[in-house]
Fold each of these.
Amino acid sequence: MSFDGKIRVEYARDLHLPDVGLWLDPHRSKPFAFVSHAHSDHVARHQQILCSPITAHLLKVRYRISPERMMPCEFFQARSIAGFQFTLLPAGHIAGSAMIHINCLNSGATLLYTGDYKLRSSRTVETASWLKADTLIMESTFGLPRYVLPPAEEIEKQIVTFVSDTLDRGDTPILLGYSLGKAQEIAAILAAHDLPFLSTASVAAMTEACRKMGMSLPEAALFHDHVPLGFSLIAPPQAVRQAAVARLPRRRSAIMTGWAIDPGARFRYRTDAAIPLSDHADYPDLLRTVELVEPKNILTVHGSTRELAAALRQRNHNAWSIHGNDQLEFPLG
Ligand SMILES: [Zn+2]
């Protein structure tokens, strides 16, 4: 137990809070883990899984994880377990994505773990909320100053323009985004602009799972091997290599990703266009998160961890990359 006003954080391939007995998004099976959201790099078969109700549903539908292992917690409803109070907050990343705020009832020490998140609002996901915390563990996917995303309206305009131009040429627009999260956001944007579309099977399955949990999305019309004139196709990035999509005549594809900020992204993704629709915080929002949470200690995880931590130290924050110096335990504070 930590009595010095801090909740201890350990990292040995996975993030662990030894005082709490909780693992954060571990890759390997653990006795008790917080799973922030249902993207595959955050999911494993733990004995007990703390997550949001939507994530619990997605874990069951997508990964066949037994509901008996899950402890679904509604957003904003504090829950006390063994001397700690846990509060899940919307992370704004994908359906059901959560941050976790932990309060040690004994010492009053607090910790916020963001998981994957974004601050800006979107059409399909509850906008992120935060609580102040002594220790902030934050993702840093776009932790370099060049990752500044355009305003949401401008990104939507790029999508609508790409679709309209492609249809005007008599071609088929193919919009590529991960089947859980990005694909539903693309669907909502197209629907808002009265642009009809089909979805591949994996996209349709995730859209249906989200609809079942109350998300307001149009029912997915399924793609088989033909896209009617005037329609777009929403597909996961790997679908361009699948026969049914690769066979489509006169297709033009656009990848939807924050990495579209990088010059030449469309060449890397082998698409005709790259549009910076992202479900991660951009660099200015990463910095803003620190202002909002007002932490005494910051740990950066995922992506440009060292660069973001260095930039935060220059701003007089006590910030460290999780990979810094290969330490097993972080001497926070
Ligand atoms: Zn994710």
Note: The mean pLDDT is 92.
Amino acid sequence: MMKLSNRIHSIDRTPIYFGNDALVKIDPFIRTLQTFHHAMIRGGQDAAGPPVGPAIFILVDPDTRKHCLPLLLQHSDVMAGAKVMEIEGGEQSKSIAKAEKLWNELLLAGAGRNSLLVNLGGGVVSDLGGFVAAGYQRGISYLNIPTTLIGQADAAIGGKTGVNLGHIKNQVGFFYAPKAVFVFPGFLNTLPEEQLRSGLAEVIKSALISDAALWRKILKHPVGALLKMPVDRGLWVNLIASTIKFKNKVVVQDYRERKLRKALNFGHTIGHALEGYSQTGHGEPLLHGDAVAAGMVCAAWLSHRKTGLSSEDLNAIRTYIGEGFPPFPVNRLSSPDIMEIMMHDKKNRNGQFQFTLISKPGHPLINIYCNHEEIFEALTTLSGWGLR
Ligand SMILES: NC(=O)c1ccc[n+]([C@@H]2O[C@H](COP(=O)([O-])OP(=O)(O)OC[C@H]3O[C@@H](n4cnc5c(N)ncnc54)[C@H](O)[C@@H]3O)[C@@H](O)[C@H]2O)c1
């Protein structure tokens, strides 16, 4: 059992409980939190007392209701009387309309300032749930219990919450940290293989920007072989723990993404645009990690052009990702549309595109400007990538 303690700033503290016994840590944590809440109410001006409705709300989607909620309730007496709120699965649930629906549900159920929202799901549930918690009555407490690899390795950690505006990813949101994160790798046993692959992209990203030795270790295991390995022990637990530790370290040092945290955007500048583009009726919508994987191929190409990434490292990245992830058909017709989406990305200022690139694995460089031609060329390298 590993406990990562994350002191974001002097008054905010987000512990991360990781391991096969993470679920048994939930009840003691909530009991402490509730005692704290009640003490706050008794001692403060708000004499409203405990919430009128249920104190705890659990946000799920249909898959996590089926696969994860029973196990959670088995380990938690405290959550026995919780109200379960369900959203549809998938990226389209990350919307203002869905947040408004949930705010109304909380209101109707009598949720108060001392209510607790528990996000049980992947990145969609934690991004939306965190957003809802941040907005409801100017902020209620929430916990993240991530159930996908993307959630466990990335999305549940770091306090970034948000929803999409149309096809522009995460355009509206808050930095609003959960009270704690409970990472139980066993939840990943029911995750479909393509979702595991999608999460692997974030693990690869983390290795490429932080840990050359970890990247070399990943290279020894082709994606297909990795996906067949047991996910709640051995190499996988090692990969997830390393990724969490690195993300946690970055978030503690740069919570508001002024500098260091931008390194985590490796592959995301183009990846988010590809993900958004794929949701506008052009083929099958891309999974987040598959889009990031394609984005990393482009970022590696830009790194080769601009920041000295060697041809060997570029080829290793292209081959590993190309053989393990689905190809994305970018052509001369789609590239301008993808660039148009990139223009709206909040990270690109004044028509300039800022990238995180690497000079070699483990060495990220932030705020590297790339021009239209370079990006266009990077996008077109995807056409010759992988299986096609
Ligand atoms: N806030 C952040 O820092 C951050 C970081 C990375 C990604 N994200 C966001 O995360 C989202 C992607 O997250 P995701 O890939 O987890 O998507 P997701 O939440 O949509 O989950 C993927 C699918 O897996 C299903 N699922 C979840 N847990 C399961 C389980 N244990 N067994 C079986 N099925 C299960 C879900 O129902 C869903 O259909 C994107 O919106 C992305 O922008 C946020």
Note: The chain has 15 helices and eleven strands.
